[in-house]
Design brief:
42% of the residues lie in helices and 41% in strands. The protein is α+β, with helices and mostly antiparallel strands.
């Protein structure tokens, strides 16, 4: 009879034993999801509206730009001018971030930019400067897939 009495206690212990890892996993998954930083919305809005000056608010003091015939490191002001020329020539119709992620102190995004004169794949890399995420690299390449 004592064995029947021990069995329910064993079942309760097993339930508690299995519940604890599930709770811990759920907590870790939630906290990791909260830790994953999202790309600032203003960047998407700037691309969607083709607004180089709004995008410049997110540029680091030096930015690597790979854009059609341009490929170099530029000061923020020159980078803004290059982007303004691009947006003046290629009017944005749609901008969609397809993938974003982070590694160490860097964030990145891959997006599709649909313009009136063609489609582009956009990559950009952000790193924190004084705890503010700023764009350090922008790559805009023709996308023949669309």
């Amino acid at each position: 009879m004592k064995t029947g009495h021990i069995l329910p206690n064993t079942e309760n212990a097993m339930k508690k034993f299995l519940t604890i890892p599930v709770v811990i996993f759920a907590f870790l998954a939630t906290s990791m999801a909260q830790d994953q930083v999202k790309i600032p919305v203003g960047i998407s809005l700037a691309f969607k509206s083709g607004n180089a000056s709004a995008l410049a608010e997110y540029l680091n003091s030096t930015v690597e730009i790979l854009l059609l015939d341009k490929e170099d490191f530029y000061s923020k002001n020159v980078a803004e001018s290059i982007l303004a020329d691009f947006f003046a020539k290629y009017h944005t119709r749609e901008f969609t971030i397809r993938h974003q992620g982070s590694k160490n102190d860097a964030q990145y995004a891959i997006a599709n930019l649909i313009t009136d004169k063609g489609n582009f794949r956009v990559y950009f890399l952000l790193k924190k400067v004084d705890s503010v995420p700023l764009i350090h690299q922008i790559r805009i390449e023709p996308d023949d897939q669309h």
